[in-house]
Amino acid sequence: MSAHYDAIVIGAGHNGLVHAAYLARAGLRTLLLERRHLVGGAAITEELVPGYRFTTFSYAISLLRPEIVQELELVRHGLMVLPMVTTFQPGRNGEYLLLGPDRDENYHEIARISAEDAEAARELDHRIARLARALKPWMDRIPPNALSDDPADAAALRELREDMDGLDPEIRELLDLFLTSSAAEILDRWFTTDLVKSLYASSGIIGSMCGPRSRESGIVWLFHKMGSYDGVPGEWGFHKGGNGGFTQVLARAVESFGGEIRTNAGVDQVLYDDDGVRGVRLESGEEIEARTVVSALDPRQTFTRIVDPHHLPDDLVRHVRDFKYQGSAAKVNFALSDLPTFPGLGNDPDL
Asked: Which long-range contacts (C-beta less than 8 Å, at least 24 apart) are formed by 54-59?
């Protein structure tokens, strides 16, 4: 063993960075290992074309928990989230909707297509915001196991049922719709025009392999509305410098608490014996000792590559191998040779 740490985190994506920061903040001597030459995982910004930096995969911030921002002091380390101020929804025959930060202007923009849908959009947005606030306390809790005999799970389930039963009837009805209906079914109940329905439908399919008429699209829509920007439920933002700028903020937080980050350090195997985990072996052959090892890799890499699957339950390995990993998004990047000037922001390329 070349070194000893209290904890090792494998994979410096945003989840691994957050985990390592909390371990270091708790006083543990923490090492974060990353196979690539830069941290960030799927939240990176790279110069793919000379002179142009691209946020390659993850692109926006909304579901970042405010507790993480506060507890890891991310603002002090450079966190700067800019609002996603406009939404463009194209339609047929030259129709479109262009929404911005002003709710009254958005109302009139939708009313240009349908006054009835403008009223419905205002009411639906209000109800979704109320529902998001009601569910927010449960976002930071471990979900209770309905099949467990543990008294703690039973108590948490009772608390959850009591909270849900205490909702206003119209909000409880909306929650039941999200849980049991597709996005299209919900939208058909609220709106009359396809253009307005399309504006909302995208929230039900982002990051999933479902369409707007798939049953699970309702819960996907609700999940995306559980995020916020500057305290406003359902709003989204972009980090200065792209999401790679955000993961660099996390990296600075890790190091500020005393954590160590090593790049170009892919893990070949987790080392363990009858007494439990004892460290990791890198692809270089170097072995590093730690009695706590956390994998922030995906389940397939964790349970079939860096851990010997022969030492794991057969049903776990089978389910992990059968899990589908198809992608569900495409991204187009536009490179501007002459950067526009935005009022109050100048022409900073990081914006």
From this structure: 54/242, 54/333, 55/242, 55/243, 55/244, 57/243, 57/331, 58/14, 58/243, 59/238, 59/242, 59/243, 59/331
